[in-house]
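SAMPLE LOG
Freezer: B-3
Tube label: C17
Construct: single chain, 238 aa
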Amino acid sequence: MKKIILLLLLLYLPVQLQAQLGEPRRILSVGASAGVNFNSIGFSPTIKQNKHIGPTAGVAFRVTSEKYFKLLCALQIELNYAQLGWNENIIDSNSQPLPDSYKRHINYVQMPILARLAYGKEDRGLAGYLVIGPQIGYAFSESETRSAEWTVNGEGNPDRPNDMFAQYSMDLERPFDYGITAGLGLEFNANRGHYSVEVRYYYGLGNIFSNRKKDVFERSNHNTLSARLTYFFDIKKK
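STRUCTURE (predicted):
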C-alpha cells in the first residue's frame, strides 16, 4: 500500500508542476571546481580499509530554466578529473595490526549529469541547493604505493585474514564506471559570479574487477565522499 501511495504521488507531482505558472529563466553559466575525494572500494569478500584521499578538479556547465514556487531548476553537466582507489588498513590472520601498507590509485575522467534545485537568494546573497543524477566515468591510468617488505605467512604469501591477497596482483579489469551521485551545497551569489561549497556522495553501480562466479570478488564498487569549491560566472542571463 505504501508503494502504491508513493507511486500515485510521483505521478501526481508532474501534473501539479505543469499546472503552476513557472517563471522562465534563460541563464547559462560556466564554472570550474576543485576539491578532494575520500574513497573506498566495497569489496566482497571484505578488505579492511582506511579512506583513500585524492584530488578532483573540473569544469561545469549549468543551464537554469525555470523557477517553480521558490525553487530554481537547472541542469548541470560536469567534466571532472578524479583520483579514486583504496587504502588498506592491513592486519594479519590473527587480526593484529601490521606495518605493511598498500594503496591503489585509479585516475578517472568523470561526467555527472545533474538536476539542480536551489532555494534562496537568486542575484545577491546566499542560497542552498541539491544536486542529484547519474554519473559515468572512465579510468585512464592506475598506480600503486606499497611498503618495501611484506609480512608473510609460513607459505611465503602475505599474511592476511582469510588469505585475501589476490588484489595486489590484479590490474583494473573494468575501466568504465557508472553510478548515482547526490550532494548538498551553499552558494553565494555576487555581482561577479557564484561561489559555492558542496559535499557530494557517489555510489558506484559497476565494479572495478570482474565478478563472475569463478572470480575473486563478488563486488568491488566505488564509494566516494567528496568536498569541493566551485566558481560559476554567467555568460548569458535573461
